[in-house]
Design a protein that fits this description.
The protein is of the alpha/beta class. It is built from ten helices and seven strands. The structure holds NADP nicotinamide-adenine-dinucleotide phosphate.
Length: 263
């Protein structure tokens, strides 16, 4: 079998790093992207020749996205797998979040993901095969007060990617959406996500459902390679999706008010 090539964004830490390691273990060769190239040093020493290239690119900028796509185009063929994992969040009242953070969330979680997906998927369709793995979040299943923009960006990832999955039916290319719940990665500190709190609070529920990045990565990669439409990791997170779909709006909002300790 010829070499299988994967492009992974957000490969320097957390879920993206775990996905990159999972792919190396499955004998993929990688083009890995992170904002800070030095973050890819550990992966480079583990992956050896399987790390074809590391791209340091700020995906909140058009230049960063272009730099990644230019490097992808240098490959002699379309990648076999694209993993869009780079993303960021910011917990807090929307009006208290700096506008630069809001811009970065929209740029990376929405704009970069869309541009990279469109470019790489077009080449995959031309060849007639390929897999795409989009890292969304269980925040995509309902509006989340205190995570308003972050959750909205993940609703976008869900709507865009699940629709694309259907559009590409019959092309040989599949798009899988991975919905992790709260996972032990640097994201939680960076987003100032509250992991403390009394029983029944957001933090307490998150602690009960806390996932390991390696488990999320393994299930996401398995789902993507099988061409599944979506992968929701963990029983509590599957319940969250089911409730988000089944409950009337007023009930969902009442639940979240109670998780947040609001009347
Ligand atoms: N951890 C959770 O609880 C959780 C739950 C649901 C979904 N997710 C999603 O999982 C994905 C990965 O997050 P994680 O939990 O693994 O956290 P993480 O370790 O903080 O990983 C985020 C990755 O995104 C990259 N990134 C952020 N801003 C970027 C930018 N401007 N340009 C290029 N790369 C950028 C980071 O690179 P640098 O480090 O170089 O900035 C990092 O590699 C995200 O899309 C996140 O929304 C996480």
């Amino acid at each position: 079998m010829s070499e299988r090539i994967a492009v992974v964004t957000g490969a320097g830490s957390g879920i993206g790093l775990a996905i990159a390691r999972e792919l190396v273990a499955r004998r993929f060769s990688l083009l890995a992207c992170s904002r800070d190239q030095r973050e890819l040093d550990g992966l480079a020493s583990e992956a050896g020749d399987r790390l074809l290239a590391r791209v340091g690119a700020d995906l909140s900028t058009d230049e960063g996205v272009r730099a990644l796509l230019d490097r992808v185009d240098v490959l002699d063929r379309a990648p076999d797998l694209l993993v869009n994992c780079a993303g960021l969040g910011s917990w807090g009242e929307h009006l208290s979040i700096e506008s630069s953070k809001v811009r970065a969330m929209l740029a990376v979680n929405v704009h970069a993901l869309t541009t990279i997906t469109s470019h790489v998927t077009r080449a995959m369709v031309a060849r007639g095969s390929g897999r795409v793995l989009q890292v969304a979040s269980t925040a995509a299943f309902q509006p989340v007060p205190m995570f308003a923009v972050y959750a909205a960006t993940k609703h976008y990832v869900r709507a865009f990617s699940e629709a694309l999955h259907d559009e590409l039916d019959g092309t040989g290319v599949t798009v899988t959406v991975l919905y992790p719940g709260v996972t032990k990665t640097p994201f939680l500190d960076a987003a100032r996500f509250p992991l403390d709190g009394a029983p029944g609070s957001v933090g307490w529920i998150a602690r009960q459902a806390l996932l390991e990045p390696e488990d999320v990565a393994r299930k996401g990669v398995e789902g993507a390679l099988q061409g599944e439409r979506r992968v929701v990791v963990g029983a509590l997170n599957q319940l969250q999706r089911a409730l988000g779909i089944a409950l009337p709006d007023a009930a969902t909002r009442a639940l979240w008010r109670s998780f947040l300790g609001r009347k």
